Amino acid sequence: MDGHAEDEGRVYQSRGDQHISEHHHHYARGPEATGGPDSVRRPLVSRAPVVLRDRAEVLNRLRESVEPNRGGEVHVLHGMGGCGKTAVAWAFFQHATEEAGRVGLWVNAANRASLRAGMLAVAADRGAGDGELLAARGGFRPAADLVWHHLDRSAEPWLLVLDNADDPTILRDGHWLRTSPRGSVVVTTRRSATRWWPGAELQHIGVLPRDDAARVLCDLAPDSGTVEQAAEIADRLGRLPLALTLAGGFLAHQIIDPWTMDTYGRRLDEDRPVELIDRGADPLAEEDPRHLVGQTWQFTLDSFEARGLPEATALLRLLARLASEPLPLALLNGPEIGGVLPRARAETALRALLDHSLTELVDADVRCVHSHAVLLDSVIATTPPEHFAALDATAAALLNAAVPALPDAGPHDPRLRLLAPHVLTLLRHTRGQATADGALALATRLATALHRTGDYLSARETARAAVDLAEPTIGAHHRLVLAARSREGRSLFRLGRYPEAEALLNRVRADQERLFGPDDPDTLDSCHALQLVLGNLGRREEALALLRHTVAGREATLGAGHPLTLRSRASLLVLLSGPELAAPGSGALLSLPEECERHLGPGHIVTLGARHNHAWAMYLLGRHDSAEAEIGEVADEYRRRFGPDYPLALAARQLLARTRAALGDVGAGIELMADVTRRRESALGRGHPFTVASRDFLAALRDGGWHPPQPPG
Predict the structure, then answer these.
(1) Tell me: the pLDDT tens digits for 373-392?
(2) Which residues partner with 362 through β-bridges?
(3) Which of 26, 219, 600, 679 makes a 20 to 30 Å CA pair with 75?
(4) pTM of the predicted structure, to 2 decimals
């Protein structure tokens, strides 16, 4: 049998039974034959940092690992996309190769193909022969073993960077991540769970401090504005290094119509922030989603879908409808979350987001979850608009369940203040009057709850911001808008801003009376608040007339036994003078605590308030023993229930100081008033009217110039 073969052909000739097996490995000739990277000696980064800001502490720790005779260490730099992990690795790589005498090796570990090709290129760099590499590529020799065989025997110490290792299973399944006495390894990843990195030293890379973030913008665009203007832009960008780099690049390369930083800030308000930020990318560079804030997180969301975990994407979209502020974790455990994902899957979804650095756990007096603003903006930009209604309805239901249905006096609750930015963000997202009505009612209820825990500043800010957001949609004279403004006025009073409170409550009351009538419950609420302001301004007669109108209106519309009616009646005990309290016919008013207890119970806050005011009446009437006994019990109950710094507790202790001094124990009065004054200065400030009154009374006790009021008759 004759045969002919050309080039790489084969001719086989045999007699008898022969079994021939051939393995063909087809690859091109030349440098591209391996399909590997062009270099592993240079970092594969699209844009090296002009100046690396802030990262001195972590870089110092990394530099120690490449000192002489050091090796066998693995450092994992983890954090959310765009936070600058690769930039830190790049800076460390430059130090290791230029100053520490290390061979630098850089591998893109974003996927199996690039990791495998890069690591085999590392093996080639460290001396692997063509035959060894060919066998590893063909599957005849374990590739990872080959790489680490040559790394372990490297004549020179080295630094190996595994960049973008966001899928640790790729490293684990191939046993690509190991240690060696001849070098150190740095991994950059979004995966923060320690289970992926046994034996490694983990280092979180977060956003930049404000000053350093501002300097990044000034480094990139030095002629666009001042450091303070840059700091304001940096705050708007959440101090995320990727966003700062893109913004600085945009500002630096405007030729036809250069922008200032102020212009950029205004456009962030007017345009879609994510689209504006991404305009800073190099238009001629190869497109890479990791280098755009609008896309850098999308491939992670795509991986959730591919791995059968759509709940993680749904949860992130839900968080994006709320604020980029700490959100109490308890909210995510409510049945209301079922509007967008099964409640039983919320835990798994949250773990996935945490593991991929798409959110983080923070301690803000309560356990919270916190997501970056730019990330949430980019998620909103890619969320199908048809999902917004369900997401907003679910967010509203979760917040509605978290805010007390009937806010009552109570101790400081850190959860309430944490809810405020989320409620306001929900209101900002609402479209149409019906949804705005519900969101504004929720915001006003939250402001009421904050007020009744003594957090008057947060209450005022929440009510005012809610009105500003809702008024363009539902109108300035909507009942809910006026109720929120009335709530703001109450908080202004408690903050000691009496003229502002009077002006606002007068205006609101006039509008309510004109629109709803003088005896409408909302109008009477504003009347009750206004009389408090007038009484503290020394305008007793005006306050008393308004309070009597309020009592009569509430009795007519709500009934004599309603808590609001009883509260207004109890306020008469404070405004009436001693002779008025002693006049015939005041017996019903002086028996008000018993009436409150009969209608509401002994522990109700209105009953306690009536007893407090009744003790004041007894003090004015000269019945100091009765007043001291009653206010002592009330003060102890306030302190037990609300804590020593609660405003009602301090007011009760101030009255207790008066009664004890009136009974002749001036020393006890001074001791009590010194404590009250110190606490009020700490909580309210030295200039607050309540603080000034306490300080003046304390001074009068100390210099002997104070005398109790004379009993009537």
Answers:
(1) 888 888 888 899 999 999 99
(2) 368
(3) 219
(4) 0.77
